[in-house]
Write a structure and sequence with these properties.
Structural class: mainly alpha
Number of strands: 0
Radius of gyration: 19 Å
Largest sheet: none
Order of helices and strands: HHHHHHHHHHHH
Helix content: over 70%
Strand content: under 5%
Shape: globular
Low-confidence stretches: 1-15
Number of domains: 1
Mean pLDDT: 85
Length: 310
Amino acid sequence: MALPEPQPAPVATPASSPPANQALVAIVIRLFAAISITAMFACVKLASNHGVHVLESVFYRQLTGVLVLIPVAVAGPGMALLRTSIPWTHAGRMVIGMVAMSLNFLSFALLPIAEATAIGFMVPIIATLLSIFLLHETVGLHRWGAIAAGLAGVLIVVQPGSGHIPLAGALVGIAGVAITAWVSIIIRKLGETESPVTTMFWFSLSSMIPLGIAMLFVGKMHDAETWAIIGLMGLFGAGAQLGITWSLRLAPVSVVLPMDYSSLIWAALAGWLIWENWPVPATWIGAPLIIGSGLYIAWRENQLARQRRG
């Protein structure tokens, strides 16, 4: 998550393996979501180049989410699905989520798209660290090793002091990842009582209040090309959000998660085609360490969940 605010940390799903055809459909949907996420962030970067304020981009992204989720709820289980008995918990999630999303959008405006994407892969690594303190989970030697490898990968990508990428952008990206990981912990707790659509809807709707106020100060008119970019950004973001949720209805996280990391390929292609910016070798060295760490953490959590089920 984040996805959306680049994506919540993967939580192992201790369900039995889905039928092969159902798993294949889930993988294809998740691949579509990964491409959509990359396209959304490419639009965020393009919009920034056209003078669109980050908070404007966040506002239109969230507005599209509300407009998409309402008909989805009506066409499916009905508007009753959007009811909640814990509005203040959703409000707290909204505040933290807005900070995370704004920082993530800003990081893509400041950094090359492939490097920003690689830094975003840190979410499951940081979420595992936070789970120790916030959820009092026990992390064994295997996952500690994966965390260390992932952090080493980030250092390789960022190369502090080398001038390889803007330091301010790297710090913004890392801060966005850390807060997104915090959001993923909150979403994990909300998932005990709330459906994914309910959580996404209230996040999008409640964020309209602070973002609407912000738009009084940063909102402005744009030319037709810029409005088209903004519209595509919202549609790609909503499509990614729905794709992530739909894929998890068909198959466990451990089945669909690898598709998320294809975002680096799409980001590299987008950077080359749009900005003529190909990732430097350090990115291709560090990113696999980050990706491998995230995949191992998800696999390990899945194994532990199966053991607990007996």
